[in-house]
Amino acid sequence: MDRFVVISGCSGGGKSTLLDELGRRGHAIVEEPGRRIVAEELQRGGTALPWLDATAFARRLIDLSLSDRAAAEDLPGWVFFDRGLIDAAAGLAHLTGEPALDAFRSSHRNNRLVFLTPPWPEIYVTDNERRHGLSDAVAEYERLTAVYPSIGYDIRFLPKVSVAERADFVLSELTRS
């Protein structure tokens, strides 16, 4: 859907903060599925966690991302996703070798522009839900920079500027495309 816009990229690169700003500006946002799954799994003592069972986690990511997309269809205007379906499918493909991305090359399309946050070591932090180090985050970022163009998306790299300037950049790029 052309009005569905993905903000992806390096973990700890400021995606959630940018989404919060876009939400304050009146746009619909969909929170990162991974953090929601981790919080739920930790609360219930589950094992579908990236550090315990990464494959089960990736499969849950795909399911939740599909549910998020379906729920977002009724939202008006731009809908900004903090990661989403392609990230989940790319993760599953990386872990298992399954052709998980093949199912989404032509279906469940988003806006052709995808915005990636580059690695930003100065703001990177771990927490209870993000336990991997910066080197793992950078490796994932590098995979995503290859995956998105390979299935027909145009990447826009987010500049390392203030949150307001990043939001302005995203909205400007979308109105120009």
From TrEMBL:
<feature type="domain" description="NadR/Ttd14 AAA">
    <location>
        <begin position="5"/>
        <end position="166"/>
    </location>
</feature>
<dbReference type="Pfam" id="PF13521">
    <property type="entry name" value="AAA_28"/>
</dbReference>
<dbReference type="InterPro" id="IPR027417">
    <property type="entry name" value="P-loop_NTPase"/>
</dbReference>
<dbReference type="InterPro" id="IPR038727">
    <property type="entry name" value="NadR/Ttd14_AAA_dom"/>
</dbReference>
<protein>
    <submittedName>
        <fullName>ATPase</fullName>
    </submittedName>
</protein>
